[in-house]
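TODO from last week: model MFS transporter.
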Amino acid sequence: MTTTTHLLRSRRFLPLFVTQLLGAFNDNLYKNAMVLFVVYSIYNSQEAEAQFSAIASGLFILPFFLLSALAGQLADMRDKAAIIRIVKFCEILIMIVGGAGLFLAWQGGALASLAIPLMLAALFAMGVHSTFFGPIKYAILPQHLHKDEVLAGTGLVEAGTYIAILFGTILAGWIAVEWAAVAVVVTAIIGYFSGRQVPPAPPMIEAEPLDWNLWRSSLQVIRKTMDDRRVFLAIMAISFFWTIGAVLFIQFPPLAKNILTASKEVASLFLVIFSIGVAIGSVSINALLRGTVSARYSPASVIVMGLFVVAFYFVCRSWVPHSPDDLMDVATFVIQPLAVPLLLSLLGIAVAGGMFVVPLYAFLTTFVDKSQTARTIAANNIVNSGAMVVGSLLAVSLSMAGVDVTDQLLLSAAMCLVSAWLGRLLYKSELRATCA
């Protein structure tokens, strides 16, 4: 029996895996249903659409920046399974609010004054939900799994996350917004009952008072974590990766509509291909490394990712658009002469990205002491989210300055070089530590 099969049959892993999968599915079903409805049914301007997409991404990311230190303290000093139950119950309440916003948007009443504010408020609250769940899903792995299972477990969590993103994205693009309103509430309820099956994960250290000063606690957790050069390099490399991902995800809906003159189903197809690719990369890197946690392939992976971004850029620049009044559906889009190179370029971006980031997450969860794992992941989330907010603001600024959304792709390609440099420094530090 393989490690992967063994984990998927084990209560040490399966309930957490299913709970994370449902949460990622719900996040993306809700967010994409909202963004696609607004981009395709409310706004009629490339600049306004790109700005709304960036604002939505920024609102979801902001809680990671503000609250990750508190989330890390809780996860390290309280029973992680108990926190999961509380967080998943809150998801039900959040999705009731978000579903109400989607339903009102479908009805077409009070869009600016009620429907859109409700949807954005729920999106921000889902960011809070994910902020508190995020450190747990990684920190609980070395507590419940054996050392030689952690890389496989991390790869499965990443792959499962992107499979969930895949299905959430598909559903958001293909079902009516009123049905999405119902689906997000039902999924949250199922996720709550799944979360109740996660085995206890008591703290590995004595409980300490929580530091409720968000600024001080954030600085403290970052300072303590960044003291080690290898942890610092891993976090910085992951941060640049997610900045690239944030910029790409912001660009997809307006790029599909305005540059490729394609429908919202095609925009969903882009996210689907991206999700499939990251899932493939996440599983493939575990096979290449054979269970050993190492950044060996990370520099090459992210350079390949940058090359695929450049290829994606050139295909978009060569694309011959249809009439903007006649958006292509998926069947029409895929028979276009450049559709296959476009989708293969996107798949290459995602596969290489998955191979880059999974070993870095596994490194963070195995290198530090188990009692510090959640706060290490929290520090990573703070830096990641700060970088992603900067990426979102940069995308908004470039759109407001009139920079074409296609040209913004080159920014993502340039950032891949920085990630490769950081990955190389991490691997060199890893080799020095091995030889010492």
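Done. The radius of gyration is 21 Å.
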